Amino acid sequence: MEVKKNPKLDYRRKSGLFFNIGLVVSLLMAITAFEWKFPDNGLKVDVIEDDYVIKHPRPITVTPFSPPPKGSTW
Asked: What span, in angstroms and rounded, lies between the C-alpha atoms of 39 and 24?
C-alpha cells in the first residue's frame, strides 16, 4: 500500500510545539490578570449609612428552663 500523505504537511508533527506555545500564552495571561493594578483616585465611599443603624434595640427576654415531665422519653 502506498502512503498518500505528505510527511511535511502532517499537523501532528508540531502538535507538541503548539501545545507548549498555548500553555505559555495562557499562563502569561493568568499571571497578568492577577498582577493587574488599578490606580487609586482617592475617592472613598462610606459604607455605613444611618438607615441601617438600630436606634432602639429590642430588650432581650430570658425564658426560664423547665425540666421535662417524668414519663417523657426526651
From this structure: 28
User: Residue 26 is which amino acid?
Assistant: S
Cα angle for residues 46, 51, 57 (degrees, 5° grid): 120
Cα→Cα distances 12→9, 15, 19, 58, Å: 9, 5, 11, 74
pTM of the model: 0.46
Longest dimension (CA), the chain: 96
Half-sphere exposure (Cβ direction) of 13: Cα atoms closer than 13 Å: 7
Per residue in 15-55, pLDDT tens?
A: 999 999 999 999 999 999 999 988 777 767 666 655 555 56
> Is 1's pLDDT higher than 80?
no
